[in-house]
Amino acid sequence: MAEPVIVIDPEIIGGTPCFRGTRVPFKNLIDYLEGGHSRSEGIITSQDRVKILLDECLPLNLRHSFPQHEVHTVQWAGLKGKKKGELVLAAEDAAYDVLITVDKNLPHQ
Fold it and tell me: Where along the chain do its domains lie?
């Protein structure tokens, strides 16, 4: 499995979820998209298709923000209600490349 795109490190922005190798909070992307902007307006991405799982704490319509990728919600994947540790393992088993969540307790579960 590839390295996670979103990381939580207590040494980086006090543990705020951010993009690997940066100090850019993941929440910035959510706010940007919820503000009506498209992903293509300000984010440069790889042409590779990735399999993304959206946690239940995120808006369902966020899945439409990544049109060139395969995006599922935990509800659609049948993983709703799993504890975060269980969810991470289930996402890995289902070959998801990315799990997007805003849960700050994930490293402790």
Answer: 6-108
Instruction: Phi first, then psi: give them for residue 25, nearest 5 degrees.
Output: -65, 140
In sequence order, what E strands does 39-97 have?
51-54, 70-73
* Interval 41-93: pLDDT, tens: 555 444 567 888 998 888 888 888 888 788 999 999 999 888 878 888 898 89
The pTM of the full predicted model, rounded to 2 decimals, is: 0.56
| Contact predicate 87/74, CB 8 Å | yes
95 CB-contact burial (10 Å; exposed 0-12 / middle 13-18 / buried 19+): exposed
